[in-house]
Amino acid sequence: MPxxxxxxxxVVIFAVAMTWIIPAGQYARVENxxxxxxxxxxxxxxxxxxxxxxxxxxxxxxxxxxxxxxxxFVILFSGAAFDVITTSGALQSLIAMFAKKYSTKxxxxxxxxxxxxxxxxxxxGVNTFIGFAPIMVMIARGFGFDSIVGAGIxxxxxxxxxxxxxLNVSTTIVAQKIAEVPLYSGIGYRTVxxxxxxxxxxxxxxxxxxxxxxxxxxxxxxxxxxxxxxxxNADSFDEPMTTRKWMVILTLxxxxxxxxxxxxxxxxxxxxxAAAFIWMAIIAxxxxxxxxxxxxxxxxxxxKRMIGAALIIGLARSVSNVLTAGLIMDSTIHAFAQxxxxxPKYLQGPFIYIANIIxxxxxxxxxxxxxxxMPIFIPLADMIGxxxxxxxxxxxxxxxxxxxxxxxxxxLMGILGASNIPYDRWMKFMWKLFLIWVATGSxxxxxxxxxxxxxx
Length: 456
Known about the structure:
Elements: H1 2-21, E1 25-26, E2 29-31, E3 37-39, E4 45-46, H2 57-67, H3 69-88, H4 90-102, H5 106-120, H6 133-142, H7 147-163, H8 169-179, H9 187-214, H10 222-227, H11 243-265, H12 270-287, H13 292-305, H14 307-325, H15 329-339, H16 345-360, H17 366-384, H18 388-401, H19 410-419, H20 423-450
Antiparallel strand pairs: 1-4, 2-3
Helix pairs in contact: 1-14, 2-14, 3-12, 3-13, 3-14, 4-6, 4-11, 5-7, 5-9, 6-7, 7-9, 7-18, 7-19, 8-17, 8-18, 9-20, 11-12, 12-13, 14-19, 15-17, 16-17, 16-18, 16-20, 17-18, 18-20
């Protein structure tokens, strides 16, 4: 955890340094037909530099914490709720029961779980599941894997669902509104992309899990997992399920189900999710037979474990604030847009995809990136004969998959923090898969160009 916090702090310092080097520039923002503020691609101009004073870094950090306050509360309260559940021993007993039956069936167990997160993340952001990280790590380690497999089930499954953009309102629909194409159009090709990425990702994860089961020393997390016992009383893995434990498990899945339903059907935001985790802690504590003092003690202990993740997320959010204050956000986007004209036709799709990956290093918000880049890429696509739907697909891939290697991604750093996985250990596992994702996305972009993915 301290390593991850240091890495994010260095990224903030690097962003400040860039405001002294990159020329400042601005686009005018206009209101489109849907009432959204978007960039006018014909209005870019260089302006007087506005380098950020390094002494203001703490101020930007505070602003980052303020803007991510609701997410921080979700993290803290999810930690509190899961501490109540793990202290009861219910999860440990349940894991032991299932491990005896499926202990050697990684090829079924892992894809089944990643599919759940992938399907949910076709409409939700992966950061919704930061609170799920401790339980998935516990399940993975109970099955003989390492912490990376547990976090990877959420992150990689969620990455496939979110990044292929099949139904996502905050990315695909925002981009399609800006592009003025029919909403949810192109869903057939995005579904094909979902399937392709899902298969490739699970082959990678299952192979890794099997390797770690056979040779635990090959895990980047071997020393840390060995030092840190699985949360809760280890003896409870040998204890049978009881009525109280089943009530705790029922509470866990009922509340998680309510959170998912609320996000999809009731348009819940993070505030409602945070409140649901408070209820989970209270109800699970009562089900376990705990009194108010015991529940409160678990609540404090669980929240303390999540402080590191909360610190990382708030600091990561300050990066975009620095770039905006230094007036280099628009000039960075402008430079990428200008380079498109010199690219051979059938490499333009992959180039836009890779350009969006680079832009996503500066703008990790999906809806924010759509509003920033689509008004530029849409007229460029029109000029070079690329369909608007293809440029939207490039945005989906570029905005999404990059988030699982970026230390500024709240979803990645939040789940790694909640799982106690240092960023450098995650990258030892992740860098090869990310390159595979880039290659796969480039091939799918080429296919979209060949078939003139439409409409428009």
